[in-house]
Amino acid sequence: MAHTTPSPLIIAHRGAPGYLPEHTLTGYRLGATLGADYIEPDLVFTKDGRLVARHDHYLSTTTDIADHPEFATRKTEKPGHDGADWFTEDFTLAEIKTLRARQAMEFRSHAADSMFEIPTFDEVIALAQSEGKKLGRTIGIYPETKSPDYFASLGYDYATVVLGALERAGWNEKDAPVFIQSFEIPILKDLRTKTQLPLIYLLESKSDLTMPDIAAFADGIGPYKKLLVNTDGQSNGLIEDAHAAGLKVHPWTFRADQLPDAFQTAHAEFEFFFKLGVDGVFTDFPDTAYAARLAGAAIQL
Ligand code: G3P
Ligand code: CA
């Protein structure tokens, strides 16, 4: 299938967690069906070295593990984590597969809690490929290496495992519909030497690095959306600087149920950021981004 590049890209952030529990195959499928171009798995390791889709390596907030008496004694404390919890790296994939996902945010619908398994990275890639065929358009993947420094300290090799999965699926080529993202620079530098896939450096706060500095190890930035505007709501020039250095700009996270004060509707927020010049958006509600992109395109006709 020809690989097209819609713009701005719509990235189904953790699937479609505005509607279904995050990081589930059904959630990713819904994200694609609602108009996303890419689905976003956050990745963490199991005890037996498999990558599974979870935003965090602790399991209490997004799974039903607290309802599994057989795992009660596996609850533990770890340095750097507040309070006791269950952690993916202490469970085999077979054990993780006995859990079911739950909606992470209390105020969202819990109707689909405890219905869906935790998917592996291989299953997410396979889903993107099969959904792309079904929908007749490319559905890419946008994996995030979560806490690579921490997992490296436990002996896990993110780059090898992520790229191995992509290689097996035939998606470790320059023009494959894949972006790999991280908040941590060492893993991006490691990946840079091992793959031609585009790499995205995530920014939670203003960086001391210049855009040309970042361009030495990444192909784009994934900033918290508020980093792109001044307090008066005008562009602060970050997008232009990134573009001048050849970097894409994919901000996060757009949530129709948590709008910034400046916007009355999700549509208005997307309209604003699309006009600002972003190249893609991470959203919990892919349908809202799709409608805004469609409306923008119609206006230009
Ligand atoms: O990866 C982009 C965005 O998802 C970063 O935020 O915390 O939702 O992974 P987070
Ligand atoms: Ca993420």
Largest sheet: 4 strands, parallel
- DSSP summary: helix tally: 10
From the alpha-carbon coordinates, what is the Rg to the nearest angstrom?
19 Å
Rounded to the nearest angstrom, the distance between the terminal CA atoms is 27 Å
**Apparent shape:** globular
Describe the structure.
- There is one protein chain.
- By secondary structure, this protein is of the alpha/beta class.
- It has a single domain (9-57, 118-300), classed as Alpha-Beta Barrel (TIM Barrel), CATH 3.20.20.
- Helices cover 30% and strands 12% of the residues.
- It is built from 10 helices and 11 strands.
- It has a 4-stranded parallel beta sheet, covered by helices on one side. A 4-stranded parallel beta sheet has the order 7-8-9-10, with helices on one face. Strands 4-3-6 form a 3-stranded mixed beta sheet, with helices on one face.
- Helix 1 links the parallel strand 1 and strand 2 (38-40).
- Helix 1 (25-33) runs parallel beside helix 3.
- The longest helix is centred in the middle third of the chain and has 15 residues, at 121-135.
- It is globular.
- The model has no long low-confidence stretch (mean pLDDT 96).
List the keywords.
single chain; 301 residues; alpha/beta; TIM Barrel; four-stranded parallel beta sheet; 12% strand; globular; binds SN-glycerol-3-phosphate; binds calcium ion
Summarize the structure.
With 301 residues, the chain is of the alpha/beta class.
